[in-house]
Design a protein that fits this description.
181 residues, mainly alpha
Length: 181
C-alpha cells in the first residue's frame, strides 16, 4: 500500500489485509470484541449504523374549549360538578326551556311577547296566570299552560315553546330589541 502512494494504516483506516476486513467472518475483527466495538463506534459516527436509532415520536396535545358546541349549559355544569348524577344521557329540560339551553335574558312578559311577535291573547293569558317575566319559564310546564286560569291550547303551546327556544338560544329578529333597550 505504501508503493501506491496511499498513507499507512491509521485508527480510522485499518490496514487493507484479510485479517482486518470487518466483513469477513473469519477475521480477527469479527472475533475481537474490542475491535468490533471500535467498528460499531465508527459506523455510528458516520451515521451508517445497521440498526436505525429510535427516534422519539412527537406528542400532540389538543385542548378543546368547554363550550365547543355552543353556549355552556349552567344546569349541565351543576350536574357535572356532582350535585346531580350524570348517566351520559341528555340533561332533561327544565320547565319550558329546552334541554341543552340555559335561560335567555331576563325580560318582563310584555317585552317578551312583543319581541317574539306573540299575539295579544298570549299576554292576556300570562296576566291571568300572574306570570310577570321570563324567569317563570324554568318553572312552568306545558300542562301548567293548558290548565286554568291560563288555558293555552296545544297550538298556542307549540308557538310559545318555539318562541321560548329562540329566547333561550339568544335568537331574535334584528329589530326586535331596538325599542326595548
Amino acid at each position: 500500500s505504501c508503493v501506491d502512494g496511499e498513507p499507512s494504516a491509521t485508527v480510522e483506516r485499518p490496514p487493507s489485509i484479510r485479517e482486518f476486513d470487518p466483513v469477513a467472518r473469519h477475521t480477527v475483527a469479527s472475533k475481537s470484541k474490542l475491535l468490533q466495538a471500535r467498528i460499531n463506534a465508527m459506523e455510528r459516527e458516520k451515521g451508517t449504523s445497521g440498526v436505525p436509532a429510535a427516534v422519539p415520536q412527537p406528542v400532540i396535545n389538543v385542548v378543546l374549549p368547554d363550550n365547543i358546541y355552543g353556549r355552556v349549559n349552567a344546569r349541565a355544569a351543576h350536574s357535572a360538578s356532582g350535585s346531580q348524577p350524570v348517566d351520559g344521557a341528555a340533561a332533561p329540560s327544565t320547565g319550558l326551556i329546552p334541554s341543552g339551553c340555559e335561560e335567555g335574558p331576563n325580560l318582563d312578559i310584555t317585552t317578551f311577547c312583543a319581541i317574539y311577535n306573540l299575539p295579544p291573547s298570549f299576554l292576556q293569558k300570562f296576566h291571568l296566570g300572574a306570570i310577570t317575566g321570563t324567569h317563570a319559564f324554568a318553572h312552568l310546564t306545558p300542562t301548567d299552560l293548558a290548565a286554568e286560569p291560563m288555558g293555552f291550547k296545544i297550538g298556542e303551546v307549540i308557538d310559545l315553546k318555539r318562541a321560548i327556544s329562540s329566547w333561550a338560544n339568544g335568537l331574535a329578529t334584528s329589530s326586535s330589541y331596538s325599542g326595548f333597550f
